[in-house]
Design a protein that fits this description.
globular, two-stranded antiparallel sheet, 7-stranded parallel beta sheet, alpha/beta
């Protein structure tokens, strides 16, 4: 998110996390939130910076500038970087693109150094594709690290989400399907989704 009024509007829905994308190639890239300081954030809402292959210095610069509590890493970041960021007191979310069971083979190395996985659709892009993946592959996920479900989720998915039963599912990542325009969230649609999913 990047529009002050839209951020304030969505904060009234009391999300657990609210994301700001600091990846220049994303159409939702946050160049500079000049009026960020004017927004009153509830302490329960985790301000989350979304990064793709950024180094520690770049990430920490944004963490300090915007008082971020969490980072979501969407690139080829190593477990060592995740460990460093977690040691700095940040909540660390590692996005993993999923297509088949084979994609779970290399994630064990991250599990000790992150707080959550975010399972997204496997594409050539770094997230934000608006496409779903076959959730049935998540039956093979056996690690203890909780995860967020992502990948083109829409309000029509509510029943399927309610029926999807996995002990480590901790939350839902909502993005492109809940926008009025790029980077601007649809308050009414999000409100409807939240009321129906709870």
């Amino acid at each position: 998110m990047r529009d002050k009024d839209n951020i304030i509007q969505i904060l009234s829905l009391k999300p657990d996390f609210i994301g700001f994308i600091f990846y220049e190639k994303s159409p939702r890239f946050v160049n500079y939130l000049h009026d960020f300081s004017e927004i009153q954030f509830d302490s329960k809402v985790k301000k989350t910076g979304v990064f793709v292959n950024a180094n520690e210095q770049e990430i920490m610069q944004k963490v300090k500038m915007y008082d971020l509590q969490a980072v979501q890493l969407h690139g080829n970041e190593l477990p060592s970087l995740c460990n460093t960021l977690k040691a700095r007191g940040l909540i660390v979310i590692k996005a993993i693109q999923i297509y088949s069971q084979e994609d779970f083979k290399e994630i064990d190395a991250y599990s000790s150094y992150i707080d959550y996985f975010l399972f997204d659709t496997k594409t050539k892009l770094y997230g934000g594709s608006g496409e779903k993946f076959d959730w049935s592959v998540l039956k093979e996920y056996k690690l203890e690290t909780p995860f967020f479900l992502s990948g083109g989720l829409d309000i029509d998915d509510i029943d399927n989400i309610k029926q999807f039963n996995h002990p480590k599912l901790i939350g839902i990542d909502l993005n492109s399907k809940f926008e009025l325009s790029t980077g601007i969230k649809d308050y009414n649609k999000l409100q409807k989704f939240i009321k129906q999913i709870l």
